[in-house]
Amino acid sequence: MIVSYLEKRTKSHSLAIYRFFFGLLMFFSLCRFWSKGWIDSLYIKPDFHFSYYLFEWVKPIGDWTYVIFIIAIISSLFVCVGYKYRISIIIFFISFTYIELMDKTTYLNHYYFISILSFLLIFLPAGSSFSIDSYLAKKSYNTVPKWTVDSLKLLISIVYIYAGLAKLNSDWLLEAMPLKIWLTSRYHFPIVGETLFQYDWFHYFMSWAGILYDLMIPFLLFYSRTRLFGFILVIIFHLLTKVLFPIGMFPYIMIVSSIIFFSPKFHFKIIMFIKKFIYNLLFFLNIQKNNIKNSLEEKDYFFKYHKSVLLIISLFFIIQLIFPFRYLLYPGELFWHEQGYRFSWRVMLVEKTGFTDFKIVNPANKNNFFYVDNSNFLTPFQEKQMSFQPDLILEFAHHLGDYYSYINKDIEVYVDNYVTLNGRKSQRCVSNTVNLYDEKESFKNKKWILPLNDEIKGL
């Protein structure tokens, strides 16, 4: 059964169109990031950057950070048009992932999605047709293994289903949190802001609708009879979230990604439309019609897969299926301690704010201490993110310890930290009796994180 499935073929148009729109969207997304001045404010101006464990060596490189973005922008454009595709997608994956790892405070689910998606695309023949590569080589792979297209569908389905399963918790289902907080604060919206957004029933409706959407949309897109309806829901849902919440490019990424579920015939129509546009553009530029026609004609070739590629992709999906559940290795409330929270498709599930003061103490004389002004080291955005994330608090404590070690080589760093989660009363999150300068970052349970005085039931 597995062998027969691996031998199935499908038209290459689906991969070609997905590659085209993915590269185009990444090009505009990175240009947008640059135009808003975020490279400077997030990566160049800060003197200190929060790192991912084991990736502490990944840092911004001053003004040269712009070069990394230039490389990512150019490679995304090359991916779009299919020029030197394999090299271009590898360069994009490396450069974009490097950008994502430069500062942990900028973590977003869709950044992670782009990284793993671009990694997957390295092993798929997305540049085998409708590309500059196929034009230059004077050949085009008319068909590709069906699993290459299905692998994209599977990854997108994992994102949706895991996001839906994560919402099966008491805060989301029984308290409509944190949507209740966010919606009631959107009172500035005309008409609905001061009326609809203030009603409890609407908060619950949006919460339950969000679960149903995440869990059902992959199946609606897979089934041909409901695909169009599902795609309309995708557009409505993601444009609505774009209007209501500041979540960047994520809605557009998911809308574009859902196109892969349509049939190769649909993708072929898009290709013909784009080719016709190019044809008319070149004709407008007074290039001979015959030359244009010949330049767009391609021969058919048969693409074969390699067993090593199947092994890599199989391991990739095993990791994607298991990795989000690593939080089960840690005791306590995930939303509180956040050990295993990132990279697990827990989208828009928490509203946390914190207050954090650091105290530098001379261990020889406990009465000899002073408090740190966080703004001397962190930007307002960094300080906000650090204040409620325990691993960031630990990292900053070590930075302060290293910085003030000139006073006394043997110093201690304590923190006074209060956090509120999904509308609860604030409580101490990190123990104020533990010298954080002695604690080391690792995958082990952080015992210095105090338990939440409540229980959130669910996955």
Layout of strands and helices, then pairs:
Blueprint: H1 2-6, E1 9-11, H2 13-35, H3 38-44, H4 65-81, H5 85-101, H6 109-122, H7 132-137, E2 140-145, H8 146-166, H9 170-174, H10 179-184, H11 200-222, H12 224-244, H13 250-257, H14 264-284, H15 289-296, E3 300-302, H16 307-322, H17 334-337, E4 352-362, E5 365-371, H18 380-386, H19 390-403, E6 412-421, E7 427-428
Parallel strand pairs: 2-3
Antiparallel strand pairs: 1-2, 4-5, 4-6, 6-7
What is the number of beta strands? 7
Report, as a whole number of angstroms, the end-to-end distance.
33 Å
Q: Could you say which structural class the secondary elements and strand pairing correspond to?
A: alpha+beta
Residue share in β-strands: 5-15%
SSE string: HEHHHHHHEHHHHHHHHEHHEEHHEE
Number of domains: 3
In what order do the strands lie side by side in the largest sheet?
Answer: 5-4-6-7
**Could you give a short account of the major beta sheet?**
4 strands, antiparallel
Compute the gyration radius: what is it? 25 Å
Low-confidence stretches: 291-297
Give the quaternary arrangement of the chains. single chain
What is the averaged pLDDT score?
A: 91
- Envelope shape: globular
Proportion of helical residues: 40-55%
Report the total helices: 19
